[in-house]
Amino acid sequence: MEEIEKVLEEITEWIRKLIEALLSPDAQPEPELIPIPVNQPKRPR
């Protein structure tokens, strides 16, 4: 029974941190992907 209580405490803590991160006013926006040029191999014609 103690193990179940410990797991519930861990889940509660994890959910609290998740909600805190989601509702935080200074949440970081998702970074924009930067296109990286790639040299295409030349195909023989």
How would you describe this structure to a colleague?
Helices cover 49% and strands 0% of the residues. It has 45 residues and is mainly alpha-helical. The chain is elongated and about 70 Å long. The N and C termini lie far apart (73 Å). The mean pLDDT is 83.
Q: Which shape, going by the Cα principal axes?
A: elongated
Instruction: Identify low-pLDDT runs.
Output: none
Mean pLDDT figure: 83
Distance between the termini: 73 Å
| Main sheet specs | none
Portion in helices: 40-55%
Radius of gyration: 23 Å
Beta-strand segment tally: 0
Counting H and I runs of at least 4 residues, what is the number of helices?
Answer: 1
Q: Tell me the fraction of residues in β-strands, as a range.
A: under 5%
Structural class: mainly alpha
What is the helix/strand order?
A: H
Provide the descriptors you would attach to this structure in a database record.
single chain; 45 residues; mainly alpha
Topology:
Elements: H1 2-23
Summarize the structure in short.
This protein has one helix and no strands. Helices cover 49% and strands 0% of the residues.
